[in-house]
Amino acid sequence: MSDVRKPGLGNPQETIAVLNKYQFTFQKKFGQNFLIDTHVLDKIIRAADITKDDFVLEIGPGIGTMTQYLAEAAGEVCAVEIDKNLIPILQDTLKDYDNVTVINNDILKVDIRKMADEKNQGRPIKVVANLPYYITTPIIMGLFENHVPVESITVMVQKEVADRMQVGPGTKDYGALSLAVQYYAEPYIVANVPPNCFMPRPKVGSAVIRLTRHSQPPVQVNNEKLMFQIIRASFNQRRKTLANSLKNYEGLSFDKEEIEQAIAACGFQPAIRGEALSLEEFAILSNVLDKRL
Ligand code: SAM
Questions:
Q1: Is 102 within 8 Å of 68 (Cβ atoms)?
Q2: Which of these, 8, 103, 170, 175, is most buried using a 10 Å CB contact count?
Q3: Rounded Cα distance, 37 and 13, in Å
């Protein structure tokens, strides 16, 4: 790393200097908690395993702290920031980098698949971000469900959400997000990050998680849409039996008998709850029910 420039941002003094220079005021509605710890930044970049061959999408660059680190390591970086007040700041902090493009837009409105096609010839991109916590789930599910070619997603999220992404059945954190993430990717918690690494300090603990996309899903599912409807139904009323949850769910049209027969055909107890099923068991149930559609 000796030939790599050390970015100037990433510590409290520099961050405060930039914020003062532009009289920037934080907007709570945008989940603005800027990183001010170089060790955490180094850890994120290392975990994301970025090389000069990589095209990186950064979601929410803020004042460009992590963007500088990404620009040093990657071939090309595209950073999407919703807050127009940050755009002149980014033009300043990123002026020495010719491999960074900043887009002023809401990430949920950007066609990332098209971006990967146009800017990376459809090859898998890497997503790296200190995410705005209020939209963590839609961002991650959007990347997976829209079949964006991603190799990995390395992101700072709320600690509790990172836990939810990697647990299995039998824990209170297990839910639809755990199953969706694990269907598409291999989750790995890289580090826990305390509130004092951010400005302003968030009220919750944070964690960096890396999701490495599976080349093939770990289970064989004939009808993905149906499996995720069954999963949603199961956790919608998680204290009810699986049979009752599926019966009551609007998006599904199986009758009581079909559901009970399918549960029996899978070898599950009649009174089993959905929260007890593993990803593999949801796949088996979905394949049985799919035959009855
Ligand atoms: N990357 C910076 C850092 O680590 O210091 C800032 C991270 S801060 C937690 C989240 C950033 O996402 C903010 O800059 C915020 O303005 C931006 N943001 C919030 N909602 C967004 C959205 N829908 N689309 C794009 N950026 C968004």
A1: no
A2: 175
A3: 11
Q: What is the 3-state secondary structure (H, E, C) of 68-118?
A: HHHHHHCCEEEEEECCHHHHHHHHHHCCCCCCEEEEECCHHHCCHHHHHHH
* Cβ-contact 226, 233 below 8 angstroms: no
* Atom 11 of ligand 1, residue of closest alpha carbon: 60
Residue 94: how many other CB atoms lie within 10 Å: 22
Distance in Å, CA 47 to ligand 1 centroid: 20
For ligand 1, what atom is nearest to the CA of residue 32?
A: 8
The ligand 1 atom nearest the CA atom of 156 = 9
pTM of the model: 0.94
How far does the centroid of ligand 1 lie from the alpha carbon of residue 83, in Å? 8
Supply 72's token pair: 């040093």
pLDDT tens digits, one per residue of 262-279: 999 999 999 999 999 999
Number of DSSP helices (H) and strands (E) in the chain, helices first: 12, 9
Structure tokens of 108?
């949920």
Segment 57-102, tens digit of pLDDT: 999 999 999 999 999 999 999 999 999 999 999 999 999 999 999 9
